Amino acid sequence: MIMAAAASNESPNRSTEDKTSARRQNEVNKKLKYISLAILVIQNASLILSIRYVRTLPGDHFYTTSAVVMAEALKVLTCVLIILIQKRGNVKSFVSLLYDSLVVQYLDTLKLAVPSLIYTLQNNLQYVAISNLPAATFQVTYQLKILTTALFSVLMLRKSLSKIQWISLVLLFAGVAIVQVEQEGGKQKEAVTSANQSYFKGLVSVIISCLSSGFAGVYFEKILKGSSASVWMRNIQLGIFGTLLGLLGMWWNDGAAIAEKGFLFGYTPMVWGVIFNQAFGGLLVAVVVKYADNILKGFATSFSIIVSTITSVYLFGFHVDLIFTLGAGLVIGAVYMYSLPKPNTSTSSTSTSSSSHSKGGDPELDSFLPNPKAPGKKKRN
């Protein structure tokens, strides 16, 4: 009787504690989502704007191929340090993990050579595109990667899209087309031409970049299904190939000039900022998407377009007219529509698929971060 009474008294107390813990967890999750949104917007907009800024400054320009190599090397170094920290400084365990992941499982490592090659090409093309296109135009046009990713997902992974997603893809294409027509015949083309930049070269670069981004993302997802490697190890594998392939591209394109002037020629504090943004920004986003569902990521992309456009007006004298606003508005709306969950799909399943698709959903990452989905844990007697 006494034990039963004690148990009955503990039950309400435990229930109250669980509710309080769950409420606190929800508040933390909400704050993390807003922080995630801010980080995604800042990273998306700042990288494009900063690249555009350093590439349009007067004077000697850095070699973009060397910047791509430097960013890949920094990314590998960062991931190595993170894994070493996870191993609590145990060098023997760390070396054993690297040997097992890179050498013993060499076939899995070799699989990443293809997406790494495409990502390296994509990073170089982004520099070319942003150097020749207004930042806002690039930001809008680059959203075509959503279209290419969707089409490759349907063709390679046999995924199905909802009617809303198909409609959003049509609107996305229409919005980009409107922006390009406006740019082709408007004042922006004159401004670009006068600055010794090629609008056509920039446009071709961003289109190829979108195609490569879509294919690489889907191929990466396909070959890594069932893989147990952590997000940090994946980035080390990608970064090793990316550094080697980047060096090859640098030698092919700028080898003679870099041999004469040096690898770090033209590097300023602002250029280093761009490189750090490119190197660490991607890793930061991989962590942040753990707390961001598809809708939040879509909203962040849309908002970053607005931020880039407004900043370009004040920083680069970008001219925004009614046609550009219409095209950009269609793209922003399409991005948000595409990110909406499918009908008859629960929020939990959407969140699960989102986290599994992103690079952030793995146990290694969980050891660094609080779990945004878990309610307060119940104490066992």
Task: Give a brief outline of the structure.
Belongs to the nucleotide-sugar transporter family. SLC35A subfamily. By secondary structure, the chain is mainly α. Helices cover 79% and strands 0% of the residues.
Topology of this protein?
Blueprint: H1 2-56, H2 64-86, H3 91-104, H4 106-111, H5 113-132, H6 135-141, H7 144-156, H8 163-185, H9 187-194, H10 199-223, H11 231-261, H12 269-288, H13 294-316, H14 322-339, H15 347-357, H16 363-366
Helix pairs in contact: 1-12, 1-13, 2-11, 2-12, 5-10, 5-11, 6-13, 7-10, 8-14, 13-14
InterPro entries: EmrE-like, Nuc_sug_transpt
Keywords: Golgi apparatus, Membrane, Sugar transport, Transmembrane, Transmembrane helix, Transport
Family: Belongs to the nucleotide-sugar transporter family. SLC35A subfamily.
